[in-house]
Amino acid sequence: MISPPVIFGSFGSAESSFSSRSQSAAMRDDSSPWVEVSKTLTEVMTPKAYDHMIPLAKRWAAGVEGALEARSVPWHVTRLGCRAEYHFMPTRPRNGSEQYAHGDFELERFLHLYALNRGVLLTPFHSMALMCPATTESDIDAHTKIFAEAIHELIS
């Protein structure tokens, strides 16, 4: 049996994101988006959830930084709350123009496909991970291992 992928960039587990939402809307008379927003704010985005997610984002960022430092790769990792991403530049971008100027579509695709082929799905439009309440330390460690292997292959 194939294990489910680790998903980064989705707020909520794959189950809650894909099946529970449509089932709960079908079971209620009121499927207004505002009901879903209210439920998200009161049941998902709680202090308890952030107490779980922020340390995981710190762990993810530290793992990526460690892999980059081990190979002297001059990229930068940025973390804000439970969100973290890496940039193909040595310092944090000051604005979107700087970020865009250092973008590398082929490199980004390589890293995304490398991870995806090993069971880790990153946010498809940049190299960002958003921790969710279902994210585990083993998910983070899987990404760190795969990312380090990808960097090794790029540098070797």
Description:
This protein is mainly alpha-helical and about 160 residues long. It has a single domain (about 5-155), classed as Alpha-Beta Complex (Aspartate Aminotransferase, domain 1). It is about 55% helix and about 10% strand. It has helices at about 15-25, 35-45, 45-70, 95-100, 105-115, 135-155; strands at about 5, 75-80, 85, 120, 130. Helix 3 (about 45-70) packs parallel to helix 6. The longest helix has 24 residues, at about 45-70. The chain is globular.
Keywords:
single chain, 156 residues, mainly alpha, Aspartate Aminotransferase, domain 1, three-stranded antiparallel sheet, 6 helices, globular
Strand content: 5-15%
Radius of gyration of CA atoms, rounded to a whole number: 17 Å
Mean pLDDT: 84
Strand line-up in the sheet with most strands: 2-3-5
Number of separate strands? 5
How far is the first residue's CA from the last residue's CA? 33 Å
- Briefly note the structural class of the backbone: mainly alpha
Stretches where pLDDT is under 50 for at least 5 consecutive residues are 10-27
What global shape is seen? globular
- For the record, what CATH class applies? Alpha Beta
User: How are helices and strands ordered from N to C?
Assistant: EHHHEEHHEEH
Helical proportion, percent range: 55-70%
Largest sheet: 3 strands, antiparallel
